[in-house]
Design goal:
- It is a single chain.
- The chain has 518 residues and is mostly beta strands.
- Among the domains are: 11-92, Orthogonal Bundle (Cytochrome Bc1 Complex, Chain D, domain 2), CATH 1.10.760.10; 102-130 and 151-274 and 276-318, 8 Propeller (Methanol Dehydrogenase, Chain A).
- It is built from seven helices and 35 strands.
- It has a five-stranded antiparallel β-sheet with strand order 3-10-9-8-7. The chain has a four-stranded antiparallel β-sheet with strand order 6-5-4-35. A four-stranded antiparallel β-sheet has the order 11-12-13-14.
- Strand 5 (143-148) and strand 6 (153-159) form a beta hairpin.
- The longest helix has 16 residues, at 286-301.
- The N and C termini lie far apart (54 Å).
- 45% of the residues are buried.
- The structure holds heme D.
């Protein structure tokens, strides 16, 4: 086999080999068929720098050489020299010369209707309690296990798109679950018939999705392109692409995340690159009206693409800083936001659209993992910290910090349940990544520290519907779901799983339990 020596002159996509042959040729021969000629993804994931940020160079090199287990990615060690693999790694981590279009037309064309919603069964085909099902995302081989919370056993396991991220979201009755992948694929799964209903690619690099309180609209937040995309929740057909453009019209922004605010009948979106928070009201007539209008126009024009009408008006709230991580109080009257630079939290009163308070929160609080509980006649919220070993507890009436609870290292996720006296927080990174603290919600003291798998990352807890069991992930390729009795804190059961990450109980999510993130 011809051996090319790599010339690592990475100028955008100009990575070249020593004989001046662009590495793009190599990419075209070995990768394009599955990952798309412009690296936008196909049956394989998108190979763009932002999408690959969490993949170490040596990991990427190993995947090219040896393939990826439980996927269709083969190993190329036989066909490619190490230098060629290195060049490909550099190539896929270099930016594209221009940002490809991903608007209404492309989204519409990506739509897949797996099942006709009208043909779905009217009753579950299983006898598990629907509201006590918990979805477990398994990142190692891109699957979701649906756990029957009554029997504490898997009900079914199904493959997902590559690299899901953000919480899974449910229809208000808990029947349908919506999943989003970092590559922009939005999937809808039916928990009655245990099958996929529809999929659509709403973006090229997506952050998360939110479902409206009336269950009619799904809103998707994208880094690439800079947009929010509204989908009809029944079939996942695109309704509107909202460009994330600043008020002045000049700059556009990555959208960090979007959340549903049911008491306000709106979505609230966090902008990464300008100092605005967006509130987007929805109304339950919007999806059907838009689809009807699109059908009409399609019939008239003979074109297969619906028009982009604008039923989702944007209310812009000016803020003092870039706010890209949010927490809301239960009535959604207030938002606390921090930027990823951290340091402080801003409290924004949403009706007034004004900052009313600044809270000193050192390090990098992870507000979207924050939870609430009743405390001394009022309510507090608590947030883990991605940079420092601490949980910050904040009084929601005075906006004062009640306590900073020292932990054994930075934590990612926090969870509790109305029926347990404890809040659980993981350590997740650093030397003590295998530890999980259990905090008494009234004394605000750590009462127990668990080490379910020494040396292995443990993180993210979810509760069964009644709060009786706490489910904890051993976040490793050959990981496990460890099930604890939430009162005695004793282990009850351990189920092997493939890098289990986030877990989402239907009841806790649709009732917007104060112990879970929204
Ligand atoms: Fe997440 C939720 C942002 C890295 C796993 N993550 C969220 C949410 C946001 C966010 C805004 C809430 C949205 C929602 O639930 O709808 N995450 C970010 C980042 O900015 C960050 C730090 C960098 C990035 O690359 O995006 C980041 N997140 C990670 C990871 O590295 C994690 C650990 C592994 C992964 O899957 O990539 C990770 N994030 C999660 C999970 C949730 C999440 C499991 C849902 C938590 C929940 O209980 O709801």
């Amino acid at each position: 086999m011809k051996r090319w020596v790599v010339l690592l002159s990475c100028l955008g996509s100009q990575v070249a080999l020593a004989d001046n042959r662009p590495v793009a040729e190599l990419y075209g021969r070995y990768c394009a068929e599955c990952h798309h000629a412009e690296r936008l993804g196909g049956i394989g994931p998108a190979l763009l720098p932002d999408n690959l940020k969490r993949l170490q160079k040596n990991e990427a090199s190993e995947v090219i050489a040896k393939g990826r287990e439980a996927t269709q990615m083969p190993g190329f060690a036989e066909q490619l020299a190490q230098e060629e693999i290195d060049a490909l790694v550099q190539f896929i981590q270099s930016p594209l010369a221009s940002i490809p279009a991903w608007g209404m037309e492309q989204i519409r064309a990506s739509h897949i209707q797996h099942q006709d919603p009208a043909q779905l069964p009217s009753k579950p085909i299983h006898d598990a309690d629907l509201l006590n099902l918990t979805m477990v995302v398994e990142l190692a081989d891109h699957h979701v296990t649906v756990l029957d919370g009554g029997r504490l056993q898997p009900l079914v396991r199904f493959p997902t798109r590559f690299a899901l991220h953000g919480g899974l979201k449910f229809s208000p009755d808990g029947r349908f679950v919506y999943l989003s992948s970092r590559d922009g694929w939005i999937s809808k799964y039916d928990l009655y018939s245990l099958q996929l209903v529809a999929e659509v690619r709403a973006g090229l690099n997506t952050r998360n999705l939110a479902v409206s309180g009336d269950g009619k609209t799904v809103m998707v937040a994208n880094y690439l392109p800079h947009s929010l995309v509204a989908l009809d929740a029944e079939r996942l057909q695109p309704l509107q692409v909202i460009a994330a453009v600043a008020k002045e019209g000049a700059a556009s922004s990555r959208v960090s995340a979007v959340f549903s605010a049911p008491p306000r009948n709106s979505f609230i979106a966090a902008m990464k690159d300008f100092t605005e928070v967006w509130e987007i009201p929805y109304n339950d007539q919007a999806p059907s009206k838009i689809l009807a209008k699109a059908d009409e126009e399609r019939a008239e024009s003979g074109k297969g693409v619906p028009v982009d009408v604008s039923p989702f008006p944007v209310r812009r709230i000016q803020v003092d800083d870039y706010l890209d991580d949010f927490f809301f109080d239960l009535p959604y009257r207030h938002l606390i936001g921090t930027s990823r630079n951290g340091g402080s939290g801003q409290v924004v009163q949403l009706d007034m659209g004004k900052k009313i308070k600044e809270i000193a929160i050192p390090g990098m609080p992870h507000l979207s993992s924050g939870i609430l509980w009743d405390y001394q006649g009022g309510q507090v919220m608590a947030t883990p910290n991605l940079k420092e070993g601490m949980v910050t507890v904040i009084d929601l009436q005075s906006w004062q910090v009640v306590k900073r609870i020292a932990t054994q290292g930075p934590g990612f996720f926090m969870r509790s349940h109305e029926n347990t006296p404890y809040a659980w927080v993981d350590v997740f990174t650093g030397a003590h990544k295998d530890l999980v603290h259990v905090i008494d919600k009234q004394s605000l003291e750590i009462v127990k520290t668990l080490n379910p798998a020494p040396g292995k990352t443990s993180g993210h807890v979810e509760f069964t519907r009644d709060g009786r069991y706490a489910l904890l992930s051993i976040w490793e390729n050959d990981g496990a779901l460890v099930i604890y009795d939430s009162q005695t804190l004793e282990e009850v059961k351990r189920l092997p799983m493939r890098k289990p990450s986030g877990k989402y109980n239907v009841y806790n999510k649709i009732t917007r339990s104060s112990g879970t993130s929204h």
